[in-house]
Amino acid sequence: MQKKWKTIKPSSYKNLKKCLKELKKKYHISFWIEDIVKNKKNKLTITKKKINLYRIKVSTLGFKKPTTLKVIYKKFKEKGYQCVPPDIALRARFIYPEQKTGEWLRFATPMKSMIDSDNVPHLPKLGKALGEYFIETYWSYPKAIFHPHNEFVVTIKNDF
Prior knowledge:
Layout: E1 6-8, H1 16-26, E2 28-29, H2 31-38, E3 51-57, E4 67-68, H3 69-78, E5 81-82, H4 86-91, E6 104-107, E7 122-129, E8 132-139, E9 145-146, E10 151-156
Parallel strand pairs: 2-8, 6-10
Antiparallel strand pairs: 1-3, 3-10, 4-9, 5-10, 6-7, 7-8
């Protein structure tokens, strides 16, 4: 198993809209993230328990060539990893000030858990560029392609 990367503690936020309001005070939030949080079809909630997070490179899963998200998620499951709740992915921005410039770190959130108002599924990603911190998205179609050097944040079943 991988070494634990970060732990997200229980939150006092009542809902994700209030959390997003706080994030926007310090960080650049993409229009897609805002749209996803506003989209009531997503039923996004605040996780009330501690969650341990792990960083996993696609190559660590045994892939040497570009691979689809569907296949990567299947391998996560086989190896005992599971997706991160969407609110945890967004809240992780608060606790990752040491992020390196140029890094974009994707979170494996459940498929179709973060849908924009155009009905496009997304994965959240944290980034640092131009001396600023961001929360952006990347499409999460089952056939979206990721490369061996790409890295995802996951959790481990029953590790919370």
